[in-house]
Write a structure and sequence with these properties.
heterodimer, A: 568 residues, mainly alpha, two-stranded antiparallel ribbon, 6 strands, globular, B: 670 residues, alpha+beta, seven-stranded mixed beta sheet, six-stranded antiparallel beta sheet
C-alpha cells in the first residue's frame, strides 16, 4: 500500500462528498417540487409523461396506495421483462441471432433486475440480445433505481411531515428521480466513459485474430450508456460477463475512478438530501459520518487481509507478491479493494475484480456488508431506508437508556415501528441463512460448487447474501444458473426487496401521522459522536451476532487454513 | 431492598415453581422457549441414561435450564408479592364496610357498602369508617386516611369547595358528615387500588409492547441461527448434539431481559406506590418520563396560597404609627389570612407581643363583601376601612374627595412589583397603603430548576393580573406563565401545547380542573381534591403534594432506563457466549478454530456448561437491579447515556468473559 494511494483515496472522497452535497441539495429541490436549473428543460417532458399516463402531479397518496403502487409496478416489471427475454428470438435488434432465454433463468433475471439487484446467472454477451439489453434490462436499470429512491422519499417524508395522512406520490417521485437525476447523470457519465474508450455501438460481434494466430470473438454493443446507469442506479448488472473488469466496460484507471465514483454518488447524495429535507443538515452529515466510519473499518480489513503475504506463497518460496489473483493490473490491489468495498456496501454489485479470489477475511467483509442489508451508503434510496431501520433499533435502546420513549427527529417510536423495522432487518437476514442452509444440505445445491470445504460454504453464503442485499455480485465459483439456484435466489431477491421497502412505506405512513415533538434538554442529541457510536455499534453487533457461526465455519476457518498453509 | 427477606423469598420461590405451568408461562415467550429447551434436554438425559451414553452434560444443562426458568419466575413473583400483601389488607378493609344510607323517604337504613350506588346519600358518624368514595355535601370532618395513604396525620374535609372528596376505607375521627356517593361498586378508589397493586389491570405500556416485540424478534433470529447451524456443520463434516444446540439457543436468546422484564414493570408500579402515588396504569408512569411541559396552579402549588402583608407605606403627612395601628384595628376581627397577616406584621412593627391588643369595646367589625370590596371597623367614632384602590376611590367619590397623588404612586409601585396594594382610610382620610405579597413556597425554585434540568418546562396558570403573575414567575424561576386565566384556559392551553407535539402534565385538585386533567397526558390529582378531579386524573397523589410530579417523572424514567440497560446487557452478553460455545462445537473437528476459544476454557463440555450456568445465574444476580431500578441522575442526556452504555453495554461484553472463565475454573476444580 503506497501513501499516494491513500492520498488519492482522500481526494476521491473529498470530491465525492462535495459532489454529493451539491447533488443532495439539488435532489431536495427536485423532490419537493421546487424549481431548479433543469426545470425549464425537463418539466415539459415531465408534464407530457403525466398527461400520457394520466397522473395528477399534485395528488398525494396514503402509505397504502404508495405501497400498492410499488408492488404493482414491480410485478408488472417482472412479467414484462420475463416476456421480452423469452421472446427475444422473435424480436428486433438481435444481430447475433440469440435464442429466447430459458424460463427459470429469464424469471430469475427479471426479478433480479426489477429488484435493482442485477444478479446475473448467465453471461450477458452470450445470452441477451441488444433489444433485451436496451428495452428490458436498461429500462429496469432506470426504473428500479427510480422506484427505490421513491420508497426512500416516502420514509423521509414520514420524518419531515406532521399529522399528514399522505406520504407523497410514488409515480411522481419515480418519474422525477429518473428524469431529473438518473438520466442527466447517466448522460454525463456515459460521455466521460466513452472518452476513456468504453464502447457504444450496435455492431455485431467482431472476430479478431490474436497474436498467436488464434481466433477471438469480440462482443460489441451499447455498453457505455448501460454502464453509466448500472453504476449510478446501484444496479451493477454488467454488459459483459466479467462486468467492470472487462476492458470494454472499464478500460482505464480514470474510467475506474469515474465508475467507482458513480457507484457511491447517489447513495451519498441521498443521505445529505435527507438532512436538507429535514431542515437539519447536520443530521445528514452525522449519518454520512456513521456510514463512512463503517466503510473505513471494512475497507481497512479488506486491505489488511489482502496486502498480507499469503503463507502458501511464502512456503513456496515466493515473497514480495500481493494477492493479485482475480484483480486487474490496470487498477491494482488498492483500487480493486476500494471498488469491492464500494460495490458491496452499496447494493451495486458490479465488480472490477473477482471477489471469489480475495483472501478469506476480505470475502467475509464483503459478505458482512451485504448481509447487514446494504446500509453503508446502500442502494439508491433503499440504502438510507435500511440504515434508518438500524437507527430506529438503536434509538430504541438508547432512548430507553436515557429514560425516554424512543424517538428520532421528534417522531416517537411505538410497537408498530419497532415491529416493522425488525421484520425489515431480520427477514432478509434469516432468508439468506435459511436458504443457504438448504443449499448446503441437498444435492442440487451442492452440485453447483466448484470448490470444497470452507470456501465452498463461503461461495454459497455469498450468493444468498448478495441476493437478499439486492447486490448482485457473486463469488464466481458457484454455477448459479440452475433451477435450484434460480428459484431460491429469486425468493431471496424478493425477500430482500419487499421486506425492506414495504415496512419502510408502512413506517412512513405511521410516522407521517404523528406530531413532531420539539427538542428539549431531555432529548437524545442525534447529531454527535454518541449517535455515531451507538448506531455503528448496533449495526456491527446485529450483524456479528447473526453471522458469527456461519462466518466461523466459512471465511474464518478458511483464513485459519491459509495461515496453516492448508489447501484443498 | 427489604424484599430480600425470607418471608418474601420462600413464598416467591413456591410461586415460581407454580409458574412453570406452560399455559401461564407462554405469556412470556422467551421463558417458554427456555422451558421447551429444558424439556428437550431432560428427555435427552433420560434417553442417554437408558442407552448408557454419557449423561453428564445433558443432565447438568437440564438442571441449569430449569433453574433459568425458575429464576425468571422468581423475579416476577418477588416483584408481585408486596403488592399482593397490600391488596389483601385493602380487600379485608373493604369487605367489612357497612353504610348508613338515607333512603328516598328520608329514613336511615344500614346496608352493606357493596350495595351502594352512585348518587346515594349516606351519613357517617364520628368514629365510623367511610364506606365509599364521594363528596361531602354537608358538614366538616376530621379524617384519618392512613389506611390508604399510610399517613397518620388526619386531614380536614368539608362540604363545598375543593376539599370535599372522601375515600372509602378512611376513618372519620370527628364530626358528622353527609356524603353523596360518586362511583358505583367496583369502580371505587379502593377497588382500583386493589386491582392496581395486584397487577390484574396492568396493561402493557407501548414501550413494554415494543420491548416484547424486540425480544421475540431476537428469539426468532437466534432460533433460526441455531436451527440452521447443524446443516452448515454437516456440510463441514461435523455433527452437533441436541444438548449443545439447546444450550447455544438459550445462551443467545435475550433470557436476561426476558426473565426480568415483568419484574421491572411491577417493581416500578410498586416504587410509585411507595411515593404514595396511585397510578391507574403503568402507561401513565412511563408517559411521565416523556413529559416536557408541566402546568402548575399558582395558588397552593407555587405560592403558599395566601398573600401576606409585608410593608406599610404612609401617605404624606400621616404618621407611620397611625397607619399601622389603624390597619391593625381594622383587621383584628378579620379572619382572612390577609387580615391576620396584617395583624402579625403590625404587631411586629409596633413591638407588641401576644394578646396585648384586643378589639376595642363598642366597636363593630365590617366584614368584606364582594359588593363593597372593603372591610374595616367602626370604633371610637372612627370609621376605618381598607380595600382595593378602586373601592376606596368609590368611597371617597361619594364624599367628593379624591385620593392624593402620592398614594397613586405608591399603589402603582406595589402593583409593578407584582404585589397587591390595600388602601387604608380613616374617616375618609387616606392613611396609606399596605403591601400584600404573594409568598413563594420555599424550595419551589429549586424544584423548578430541577425540572428544567431534566428537560421539562414549567408553566404557571393564575387568575391574577399579568404583573403579579410575572413577578411570581420570576421569583420561582418559571419558564412561562398565563395570567388572568379562566377555568377553561387550562384546557385550551393543554390542547395548544399538545398540538405542538408536547406531552403535558398537570396537577389539579378542583372540579373545574377536571376537563383539563382529562386532556393532559399525565394528570395528577390531589387526594384531597374533588371526586371529579380524581376521576379525571390518571394518578392520585395521596400526600397532596404538588411537587410530587418530579418523583413520578424520575420513576417513569427509571423504569425505561432499567429496561434499556438490561436489554443492552443481555444482547452484549451474547458476544462472550459465542466465543465460549462456537469453538467448543467446531474445534473438535477443526482444531484451528481453537483460536476463537480466547477464554482458554478447559473442555468443550465445560465451555458449554459454563455459558449456560452464567446465563442462568445472571438473572438472580440482576434481580436487585430490576426491582430497585437503574438510578436516574439529573445530568445531561449524553452523560447519562455514556454511563449506561459503559456499564451495561461495555460491561455487558466484558463481564461474561470473566464470569464464564471463573465458572469454567470452578467446574475444573469440581
Amino acid at each position: 500500500m503506497k501513501l499516494i494511494d491513500i492520498a488519492a483515496l482522500l481526494i476521491f472522497f473529498t470530491a465525492l462528498i462535495s459532489a454529493s452535497l451539491v447533488l443532495g441539495k439539488y435532489m431536495m429541490k427536485v423532490f419537493s417540487g421546487s424549481k431548479t436549473f433543469m426545470t425549464p428543460v425537463i418539466h415539459p417532458i415531465e408534464r407530457l409523461i403525466y398527461k400520457v399516463c394520466s397522473i395528477d402531479e399534485s395528488s398525494e397518496m396514503t402509505w397504502k396506495s404508495y405501497a400498492f403502487g410499488f408492488i404493482l409496478f414491480n410485478i408488472a416489471g417482472i412479467i414484462l421483462l420475463t416476456a421480452i427475454q423469452v421472446a427475444q428470438g422473435y424480436l428486433p435488434l438481435n444481430p447475433q441471432k440469440l435464442p429466447g432465454v430459458k424460463w427459470d433463468s429469464a424469471l430469475n433475471t427479471a426479478i433480479s433486475f426489477v429488484t435493482n439487484t442485477n444478479w446475473q446467472g448467465y453471461s450477458g454477451e452470450m445470452t441477451m440480445s441488444y433489444f433485451t439489453q436496451m428495452t428490458g434490462l436498461t429500462v429496469q436499470n432506470f426504473v428500479s433505481a427510480g422506484i427505490g429512491m421513491a420508497a426512500g422519499l416516502a420514509l423521509i417524508r414520514g420524518f419531515t411531515r406532521k399529522e399528514s395522512a399522505t406520504v407523497g406520490n410514488i409515480w411522481v417521485d419515480m418519474i422525477r428521480s429518473i428524469l431529473y437525476v438518473l438520466i442527466p447523470l447517466s448522460i454525463i457519465t456515459a460521455v466521460i466513459l466513452m472518452s476513456q474508450g468504453v464502447i457504444q455501438n450496435f455492431h455485431s460481434y467482431v472476430t479478431a485474430e490474436t497474436l498467436e494466430g488464434g481466433k477471438q470473438i469480440l462482443p460489441m454493443g451499447p455498453a457505455a450508456s448501460q454502464i453509466a446507469i448500472k453504476q449510478l442506479g446501484t444496479n451493477g448488472g454488467g454488459f459483459f460477463n466479467v462486468n467492470s473488469a472487462h476492458p470494454f466496460e472499464n478500460p482505464t484507471f480514470i474510467s475506474n475512478l469515474v465508475e467507482n465514483f458513480s457507484i457511491l454518488l447517489i447513495p451519498c447524495a441521498f443521505v445529505f438530501m435527507f438532512g436538507y429535507m429535514l431542515n437539519n443538515r447536520k443530521q445528514g452529515q452525522t449519518i454520512f459520518i456513521t456510514m463512512t466510519l463503517l466503510f473505513a473499518i471494512g475497507l481497512s480489513l479488506v486491505l489488511w487481509s489482502d496486502y498480507r503475504i499469503n503463507p502458501l506463497y511464502e512456503n513456496a518460496g515466493i515473497t514480495n507478491v500481493q494477492n493479485m489473483e482475480g484483480k486487474e493490473t490496470r487498477f491494482g490491489m488498492f483500487w480493486s479493494s476500494v471498488w469491492s468495498e464500494s460495490t458491496t456496501v452499496t447494493s451495486n454489485g458490479s465488480v472490477n475484480s473477482m471477489h471469489d479470489s480475495y483472501m478469506p477475511l476480505a470475502g467475509m467483509v464483503q459478505m458482512f456488508n451485504m448481509g447487514i442489508g446494504e446500509v453503508i451508503y446502500g442502494g439508491a434510496g433503499v440504502g438510507l431506508i435500511g440504515f434508518l431501520f438500524y437507527v430506529i433499533l438503536a434509538m430504541f435502546v438508547a432512548g430507553l437508556m436515557i429514560g425516554r420513549t424512543p424517538e428520532f427527529m421528534g417522531k416517537k417510536f411505538g410497537p408498530y415501528e419497532m415491529g416493522m423495522s425488525l421484520v425489515a432487518l431480520l427477514l432478509p437476514m434469516c432468508t439468506a441463512v435459511i436458504l443457504a442452509s438448504i443449499a448446503v444440505s441437498i444435492q442440487p445445491g451442492l452440485s453447483s460448487l466448484n470448490n470444497p470445504s470452507a470456501h465452498g460454504l463461503s461461495e454459497i453464503l455469498y450468493a444468498y447474501f448478495s441476493a437478499v442485499g439486492n447486490n448482485g455480485s457473486a463469488f464466481a465459483g458457484l454455477n448459479a444458473n440452475t433451477l435450484f439456484y434460480n428459484s431460491t435466489l429469486s425468493i431471496a431477491l424478493l425477500a430482500g426487496r419487499f421486506a425492506t421497502v414495504l415496512p419502510a412505506i408502512a413506517i412512513a405512513g405511521s410516522l407521517a401521522q404523528k406530531k413532531i415533538v420539539p427538542d428539549s434538554a431531555a432529548t437524545f442529541p442525534t447529531r454527535g459522536i454518541l449517535f455515531v457510536a451507538v448506531v455503528a455499534g448496533v449495526i456491527i453487533i446485529m450483524g456479528a451476532l447473526t453471522f458469527f457461526p456461519v462466518f466461523a465455519l466459512g471465511p474464518v476457518l478458511e483464513h485459519l487454513f491459509v495461515q496453516q498453509s492448508l489447501s484443498f | 431492598m427489604n424484599l430480600l427477606r425470607s418471608e418474601f423469598i420462600l413464598p416467591s420461590l413456591k410461586e415460581s415453581v407454580k409458574k412453570l405451568n406452560p399455559f401461564t408461562l407462554c405469556k412470556n415467550p422467551v421463558m417458554f422457549v427456555v422451558e421447551i429447551g429444558s424439556v428437550i434436554t431432560t428427555v435427552v438425559t433420560l434417553r442417554n441414561f437408558f442407552s448408557g451414553e454419557s449423561v453428564f452434560l445433558p443432565l447438568q444443562v437440564s438442571i441449569w435450564l430449569w433453574a433459568t426458568v425458575i429464576f425468571a419466575n422468581f423475579a416476577e413473583s418477588l416483584a408481585e408479592i408486596k403488592g399482593k400483601a397490600r391488596a389483601e389488607s385493602l380487600r379485608s378493609t373493604k369487605n367489612l364496610l357497612i353504610a348508613t344510607r338515607i333512603s328516598e323517604s328520608g329514613k336511615e337504613e344500614q346496608v352493606n357498602a357493596a350495595l351502594l350506588k352512585k348518587g346515594d346519600i349516606i351519613v357517617v358518624h364520628e368514629g365510623d369508617t367511610i364506606p365509599g368514595d364521594g363528596d361531602i355535601i354537608q358538614g366538616t370532618g376530621l379524617i384519618d386516611e392512613s389506611a390508604i395513604t399510610g399517613e397518620s396525620a388526619p386531614v380536614i374535609r368539608e362540604s363545598g369547595g375543593d376539599r370535599c372528596g372522601v375515600t372509602g376505607g378512611t376513618k372519620l375521627l370527628s364530626g358528622n358528615i353527609k356524603i353523596r356517593i360518586a362511583v358505583n361498586q367496583g369502580e371505587s378508589f379502593l377497588d382500583s387500588m386493589i386491582k392496581m397493586v395486584e397487577g390484574a389491570k396492568r396493561q402493557k405500556s407501548p414501550n413494554e409492547a415494543a420491548m416484547d416485540i424486540l425480544i421475540i424478534a431476537l428469539t426468532i433470529l437466534f432460533l433460526i441461527v441455531v436451527v440452521t447451524l447443524p446443516a452448515f456443520a454437516k456440510y463441514m463434516g461435523l455433527s452437533i448434539s441436541i444438548t449443545v444446540l439447546v444450550s447455544l439457543l438459550v445462551c443467545l436468546m435475550p433470557t436476561t431481559i426476558g426473565g426480568l422484564l415483568p419484574a421491572i414493570g411491577i417493581a416500578g408500579m410498586d416504587r410509585v406506590l411507595q411515593h404514595n402515588v396511585i397510578a391507574m396504569s403503568g402507561r401513565a408512569i412511563e408517559a411521565a418520563g416523556d413529559v416536557n411541559i408541566v402546568l402548575l396552579d399558582k395558588t397552593g402549588t407555587i405560592t403558599l396560597g395566601n398573600r401576606m402583608a409585608s410593608e406599610f407605606i404612609p401617605a404624606d403627612g400621616v404618621d407611620m404609627k397611625l397607619l399601622i395601628e389603624d390597619a391593625m384595628y381594622s383587621s383584628l376581627a378579620d379572619e382572612t389570612p390577609e387580615g391576620r397577616s396584617i395583624v402579625i406584621l403590625a404587631k411586629k412593627e409596633l413591638g407588641i407581643h401576644g394578646g396585648d391588643i384586643r378589639q376595642p369595646e363598642d366597636s363593630a367589625f365590617i366584614p368584606f363583601t364582594p359588593e363593597t370590596a372593603m372591610s374595616g371597623i367602626d370604633m371610637q367614632g372612627k370609621k376605618i376601612r381598607k380595600g382595593s384602590l378602586q373601592a376606596i376611590e368609590e368611597l371617597l367619590k361619594k364624599n367628593n374627595l379624591v385620593i392624593p397623588d402620592k398614594i397613586y404612586t405608591a399603589v402603582d409601585q406595589v402593583s409593578m412589583a407584582g404585589d397587591t396594594p390595600l388602601v387604608v382610610v380613616s374617616d375618609n382620610v387616606v392613611l396609606g397603603v399596605v403591601r400584600l405579597k404573594d409568598i413563594v413556597k420555599s424550595g419551589i425554585a429549586a424544584r423548578i430548576a430541577q425540572l428544567r434540568n431534566i428537560g421539562i418546562k414549567s408553566v404557571m396558570i393564575t387568575g391574577d393580573t399579568h404583573l403579579t403573575a410575572a413577578s411570581i414567575a420570576a421569583e420561582a424561576g418559571l419558564d412561562d406563565f398565563i395570567a388572568q386565566a379562566k377555568p377553561e384556559t387550562k384546557l385550551t392551553l393543554i390542547r395548544k401545547y399538545q398540538n405542538l407535539g408536547n406531552l403535558v402534565a398537570m396537577i389539579g385538585d378542583g372540579t373545574n380542573d377536571a376537563p383539563a386533567l382529562a386532556q393532559a397526558d399525565v394528570a395528577v390529582a390531589m387526594n384531597a381534591g374533588t371526586q371529579a378531579a380524581r376521576e379525571a386524573a390518571n394518578m392520585i397523589d395521596l400526600d397532596s403534594s404538588p411537587t410530587k410530579l418530579l418523583d413520578i417523572v424520575e420513576i417513569g424514567k427509571e423504569i425505561l432506563i432499567t429496561r434499556g440497560a438490561l436489554t443492552t446487557f443481555s444482547i452484549a452478553n451474547d458476544v462472550a457466549k459465542y466465543f465460549a460455545i462456537i469453538p467448543a462445537i467446531f474445534a473438535v473437528k477443526y482444531p484451528a478454530l481453537g483460536v476463537l476459544n480466547i477464554m482458554r476454557l478447559e473442555s468443550a463440555e465445560s465451555a458449554v456448561l459454563s455459558a449456560v450456568i452464567f446465563n442462568a445465574l445472571v438473572i438472580p444476580a440482576l434481580i436487585p437491579v430490576a426491582l430497585r431500578g437503574v438510578k436516574y441522575s439529573v445530568t445531561s442526556v449524553s452523560a447519562l447515556l455514556r454511563r449506561n452504555l459503559l456499564i451495561y453495554g461495555f460491561g455487558g461484553i466484558i463481564l461474561p468473559f470473566i464470569g464464564i472463565k471463573l465458572i469454567d475454573m470452578l467446574i475444573k476444580v469440581v
